[in-house]
Amino acid sequence: MYRASLESLLLASALLLSGVPSASAQDASPTRESRPRAAERLRPVGPVTVTATSVDWAKNGMMIYTGDVKLSSDTLNLDGDRLELEQLGDGEYRARIIGKPAHLLHSGTPASGETPADPPVTARGRTLVFDSKNGIADISGDARVTRGEDEITGETIHYNVNERRIQAAGGSGGQVRIVIQPNNRAAPAAGTP
Question: What is the CATH number of the domain that holds 170?
Fold first, then answer.
């Protein structure tokens, strides 16, 4: 049960950020059938390690890790001051990572066959929350998300994973900043208009 929860946390964290739009992303939303294949590519295959100064694991499915928390696997690293992981049933959960700031790094996946590469994804904020049941991620407190070289910053970033929709706010008169890198296009051959 514990290992399944950690795998679910890793998978959802990676999925949460793997859909951040980039200049090279297609406009079409993934179909329900394509999501499991993408999810499987992101699932850790190696061990998952969590370190913290202390842990409180209750029978109700709530796990609280505090003090220099680090979660690492072959593809995902999380760190912060506190990780709260609540099991909601049916394999669903809610994870909340708090830090000054809290960080997430998903190393991405290389291209293989017909599957394109997924660039590395990072997130930073004072609080990162993911609800797998509703497919919602909220990053708040000097929030920043990158996917490859694309970036979005603001006071808060709300990401609906299922709809692949991002909403961001600058907060207290601040602004949202989005940087989208152009596609790398091959130069036209000599003599081509």
Answer: 2.60.450.10
